[in-house]
Amino acid sequence: MPKIKSITCHKVIDSRAEWTIETHVKLDDGSFGIQTIPEGASKGENEAVSLPADKAVSIVSTAINDALHEEDALDQSKIDQMLIDIDGTDNKRHLGANSTLSVSLALAKACAMSEKLELWEYIALLYRGKKLAHKNLHYPTPVFNIINGGKHAHNNLSFQEFMVIPSKNLAIDKALEVGITIYHTLKDDLIAKNFDVDVGDEGGFAPNNLTVEQALSLIRQAASKSFKPGEDVFFGMDVAAESFYKLGEYTIPEESKKLNTEQLANYYTQLLKKFELIYIEDPFYERDLLGWQNFNSSVGNKLMVVADDLVVTNAKYLQGALDEKLANAVIVKPNQIGTLTETLNFVKIAQQAKLSIIVSHRSGDTAEDTFIADLGIAVGADFMKAGAPVRGERVAKYNRLLEIYSGES
Ligand code: 2PG
Ligand code: MG
Q1: In angstroms, rounded to a whole number, what is the distance separating the alpha carbons of residues 73 and 93?
Q2: For a surface tag, which of 19, 54, 99, 329 has the fewest beta carbons within 10 Å of its beta carbon?
Q3: Residue 333 catalytic?
Q4: Is 172 in contact with 191 (CB distance < 8 Å)?
Q5: 362 CA distance to ligand 1 middle (Å)
Q6: How many whole angstroms from its chain centre is CA 111?
Q7: Regarding beta strands 19-27 and 383-385, do their DSSP bridges make them parallel or antiparallel, or are they unpaired?
């Protein structure tokens, strides 16, 4: 049984020129795992707390290293429970979710190496209690965010993400081809229309002076040149509605609109009639529960109503959302909760309740971190959200899917 030999940590730079951490877990049989941690810009109020990088570095290399020294490495759930217990808070504010997650995920990688398994195989074993054969793998469908707004871009768009979603029936390489093709076409179209083609945090274009409807029309137009919307390709949005919510009103300046909850729901319903939308994430502020509930009950049969900030990869908030029937799909971001075991537990509850699962990157990310690709495959996630098919930290996740698909991993 391999034991934990050392845990060290240092600062590294993320895709937004912010400091984050990289943790190295070494086992006494020579195996090791390395993990960097992403960081969000539009966060749910109940996300686990991420501490400043300097503080996290010192916590990982002293307190956590001391506490886990010589522990049985293969007991992932026990180690994660120790991290939770040492932290002792309900949102990891003591150790920091960035500290605990870096150790938890690096440990899983070290154990995969020790067991001579691919990371996805090791996570699948933890999740299912049995081996998952390569020929039985289900690849998450990529969700490409190709126009950026909200907190991810310095343009006037209030909605955060406008996405293209290839048909589920496509093999992963073909699905990626759909995203790439539409991205190039959209760039040409934007240039032809004299729009800016600078990109936002997740690699999507960030043109200025667009309305929500114009953004959707542009991606639909670009998609239509090579594919059939509604058949080969669909559309989605991460509204991240809390970023323009205040005191009962949603303000969308580019549409000259100030809407209450019901009016915003009606607005979405109009968009559903015009565009082949199958996915709306965070359509309402996370405390606007009645808005969520009414919307999910009225359109949940034809649309993925996706909860991100509402449930923050936390089983407690997920249970609330299930009890009240607030959503029919959930985002999975390990750094919202802080350990692998809690992340897997969240996915299990969501899958048992038949919710769609979308594993997701963060807007601040690193090219070294492709964990969500292995996680998505291991749990059989329906979708993977990793931004546009550009920028190293975004394509690394898509390329990891291709690496596994090729059979080389
Ligand atoms: C989101 C994410 C990722 P952030 O809201 O879904 O796209 O953004 O990491 O800024 O929370
Ligand atoms: Mg989101």
Answers
A1: 25
A2: 54
A3: yes
A4: no
A5: 5
A6: 24
A7: unpaired
